[in-house]
Amino acid sequence: MSLITIAWSFVSAIGVTVFFVQLALWRAHKGNLAPLLAATMALSAAGGALCELVMAKAASVRVFEIAILLNNVMVFFLVIPMVWFVRLRLGTGPIWLAGAITALWVIGLGVNLFLPGDLTFSSIESLQKRATFWGETFNTPVGTANPFRIVSEVATLLIIMFTGWATIAAFRNGLRFHALRTGGPVLFFILAAGIHTVFVDLGMVGTPYMISWAFMAIAIALGSEIVGDAVSAARLHTQLQQSESRWQALFDNVDLGVIGVSAEGRITFANRSMLALLGRADCDVVGQPLENFVPPALRGELASRISTARQVGPRARTDYPLLDAEGKRKDVVWSLVAIRDHDETITGFMAICDDVTAARRTENDLNETRRTIEKLDRSAALAEITAGIAHELNQPLAGILSNAQAARRILPNSPTPIKDLAEILDDIIYDNKRARDIIIGLRQLLSPQVGSMCPVAMAAVIEDIRRLLSSEMTTRGISLAIEDMRIVPMVQANKVQIEQVFLNLILNAAHLLMDDGSEEPKIEIRWRVRGEKLAVYVIDNGPGINPAMRKAILQPGVTTRKDGLGMGLTIVKRIIESHGGKIGFTSRAGRGTVFRFTVPLSQDEPGEV
User: Which of 98, 129, 289, 423 is least buried, going by the fewest C-beta atoms within 10 A?
Assistant: First the structure.
């Protein structure tokens, strides 16, 4: 077998190999047309190599004519995909120029197929035998050149312009290596194939036509890219394995439960912590509906939540209880993310589950303790004003007794006008209501159930405080001046808690005044509307707060009193903050202290109370 036959057959085989590789790449990524164009180029080059082999060994002019005609067809299906391959790969290059090249080659193909001869020769008269440098003979044609050959020559020049333009533009855009690896081999192919063909026609080289050989530059570039992709894929595979190992270690050992749920609501995976939370084995959890592990009363709601999450995505964070193997309820906080496919369709969910059962129990215990402390604080405050309360109750009770005795004296005597008895009974009823109001106020203040927030008239709060403290303040010789509260807008608050705030602040001020022995001790209560808040000021003219204690005065355990627990102002701070307000103070030595707190205004219209 001749060396020409072996070499050109080998080139054809390489083209077929590249064709199948690129076709496989296109089938794997059908959205990318570049591999399909490369496959078309490779198959055309393989066919062109066989046509060149037939021309080199043709036994007659007719066989040569058929071979060169088919070779021109192969060249057409090689260069047109090549132009658009460059455009797709580099993402640049004038589309109008690519279209012009395509149009010229379509004209050339028509000339090749439908006019006498082929695109290269109008007619071939004979074949000239020539020898290679190793002594093997091959054919070259002797004939009349086709005048329409200029179409392919112009198209070739335009291909050089287009490829150069696209390569330079991509290079300037930062795609340097990619531009050189794509545009460089194409330019080499066009120049090498074109120049070599001219030299063969002029008898200047001792080889057959080698257009297919020039394609090997493109084949090598495509192959190097595949090798590079394979190396990158191997590196990414290693990184992926390492990432999976780290994820698996985290998945298995994290203290939080991790669970996967399909779009249909079935559990797809669960880590050790999640299995421990449920008190079950993996085989008893994976594949089961999630609703099997929630309280029966909530299963319908869970199905609705999953259906909604499938459409709009899950809540980022939510509370939802689970049941363990013994049927015990577990309070769980879920942090959820959606799992989506390449079409952004939700295919499932992954959640991190935090068992907060113990924390909730502790929180409830702390709340109960806090309520107990607040009740004790209120009781302690009331203990200080017991004498005043006794005085307040003594007046209506003494009135009731006096009126009842008067009625008792009247009855045995001569008939008395009914009007006099009615007046006596009215006085008894009035005094009884006063005593009842005082007792109800005390009961509410001592009650551990403080209720919810609602519109509250601040005037009513101040009136209760005035009634409770008036005797105490009088006994201590302290003046309690309260700005007119009847026109204060209503606030959104808990009445009992706000009363406790006033009680603590006023009693604290009273202690400072008494300890200091201030002349003309005075406590004032003022108010101002600040936007959507009511600001209340409790002002005293006492000695002020010790500068060393000012930063921590609102913290637990800090007190200005020798026998104090340091909880009063802490409770006041918590109450105000729970109302969405703020509390602060200013104090100057020898000039007194001003405590200021805010509470939100109610949406109800203000009015006199």
Answer: 129
Q: Is 597 helix (H, G, I), strand (E, B) or coil?
A: strand
Distances (CA, A) of 227 to 13, 182, 231, 510: 19, 15, 6, 88
Higher-confidence residue of 408 and 548: namely 548
Closest C-alpha to 331, from 355, 362, 308, 348: 355
Residue-wise pLDDT tens digits, 468-483:
777 778 878 888 888 8
CA distance 435 to 543: 37
Provide the token pair at 49. 């190599």
Q: Is 369 helix (H, G, I), strand (E, B) or coil?
A: helix
For residue 442, what are its two tokens?
């005390």
Options 3.30.1370.20, 3.40.250.10, 3.40.50.1220, 3.30.450.20; CATH of 254-355: 3.30.450.20
3-state secondary structure of 487: coil
Which residues lie closer than 8 Å to 233 by C-beta, 6 or more apart?
none
pTM: 0.50
Report the CATH architecture of 453-609.
2-Layer Sandwich (3.30)
> Which token pair is 301?
């709601």
Residue whose token pair is 């290269």: 120
Which backbone phi and psi does 447 adopt, to 5 degrees?
-70, 135
Other CB atoms within 10 Å distance of the CB of residue 282: 14
- For the chain, the domains span 3-221, 254-355, 361-449, 453-609
Side-chain half-sphere exposure of 173, counting CA atoms within 13 A: 14
**pLDDT surpasses 90 at 598:** yes
3-state secondary structure of 144: strand
Q: Residues 207-264: pLDDT tens digits?
A: 898 998 998 888 888 888 888 777 888 888 888 888 888 888 888 788 888 888 888 8
